[in-house]
Amino acid sequence: MKTVYHKADTRGHANHGWLNSYHTFSFAGYQNPERMSFGALRVLNDDTVSQGMGFGTHPHRDMEIISIPLEGDLEHKDSMGTTAVIRKGEIQVMSAGTGVQHSEYNKNKDEEVKFLQIWVFPREVGVEPRYDQISITDGAKENGFQQILSPNKNDAGVWIHQDAWFNLAKFTKGNGKNYMLNKKGNGVYAFVLKGSAKIGDRVLGERDGLGIWDTQSFNIEATEDIEILLMEVPMELPAYLK
Questions:
Q1: Closest CA to 227 of 242, 206, 209
Q2: Vertex 58, ends 52 and 60: CA angle to 5°?
Q3: Is the Cβ–Cβ distance between 209 and 6 less than 8 Å?
Q4: Is residue 62 within 8 Å of 126, Cβ to Cβ?
Q5: Tens digit of pLDDT for each residue in 179-195?
Q6: Residue 176's CB: how many other CB atoms inside 10 A?
Q7: Measured CA distances, 115 to 32, 54, 72, 86, 153 (Å)
Q8: Do 5 and 202 contact (CB within 8 A), yes or no?
Q9: 110 CB contacts (<8 Å, ≥6 apart)?
Q10: How many angstroms separate the CA atoms of 196 and 227, rounded?
Q11: Which residue(s) pair with 33 in the sheet?
């Protein structure tokens, strides 16, 4: 098993006043040639948006974009005609494909929005843009894995144009479980939302990340009550990026 460890305080940081953002991988003004991506996982931004502020209309193409709210409400509008509000307990996906424009705003006057913005390279370019949003509250599991994203339209969670599987896991202190990878050649980027856990010989704290590959499985053990996001993605980049 191979690993790469990213301690929370080594992430890129940009505070624009209205937006406080931490970048696990190179993004915008933060450029680190050693942290361009983890396989097909291109962006993992930990964003806080101030009251009444947000991202104005801007374009995307040929990227799978996933948003997971942690606190507050985020309003989404796009050129496909979608108007929606995503909240904690939900997940949103937008396949940018041939091109889409969207905006994201915190319309609340008394509450910040905290959310994860995640980008995954699709397996192919030029797909038809699409939007989806679902609640993941009902499927939450204590001391187990909850699949929230996959490549399969009829599987649990949202789906994207990539051989990727995302799971949320919540474990109480002293509990844990073995994670089995879904596809040979994939790796998993584990990102701690709350608490701490041990994976292999590494103890991870809040907002630490650990990339894991060249293995079929690994064990997670909660050293404190923990909430962790597991993002399984292909380690080989799509052919169009080579």
A1: 206
A2: 130
A3: yes
A4: yes
A5: 999 999 999 999 999 99
A6: 19
A7: 23, 12, 8, 10, 24
A8: yes
A9: 51
A10: 8
A11: none
- Taking the C-alpha atoms of residue 190 and residue 220, their distance in angstroms, rounded to an integer, is 10
161 labelled binding-site residue: no
Quote the DSSP letter at residue 27. Answer: B
Q: In this predicted model, what pLDDT tens digit does every residue of 92-131 receive, in sequence order?
A: 999 999 999 999 999 899 999 999 999 999 999 999 999 9
Local structure of 241: helix, strand or coil: helix
Write down the pLDDT at residue 25: 98
Q: Please, what are the domains in the chain?
A: 12-135 (2.60.120.10), 144-241 (2.60.120.10)
Q: Does 102 appear as a known binding residue?
A: yes
Rounded Cα–Cα distance for residues 230 and 232 (Å): 6
From residue 203, give the alpha-carbon distance in Å to each of 59, 206, 217.
39, 10, 17
Question: How far is residue 216 from each of residues 126, 160, 188, 221, measured CA to CA in Å?
Answer: 32, 22, 10, 17
60 is in an annotated binding site: yes
| Dist CA 219 CA 163 (whole Å) | 22
Q: What is the pTM of this model?
A: 0.97
User: Largest Cα–Cα distance in the chain?
Assistant: 48
User: What count of other Cβ atoms lies within 10 Å of the Cβ of residue 241?
Assistant: 11
Q: What are the angstrom distances between the C-alpha of 225 and each of 91, 162, 179? A: 23, 31, 18
How would you list the strands of the sheet with 186-194, edge to edge? Answer: 2-6, 209-213, 186-194, 226-234, 165-171, 144-150, 158-159
- Both tokens of residue 241? 């990026």
Strand, coil or helix: 182: coil
Which among 178, 168, 185 is positioned nearest to 200, based on CA atoms?
Answer: 178
- Annotated binding-site residue? 227: no
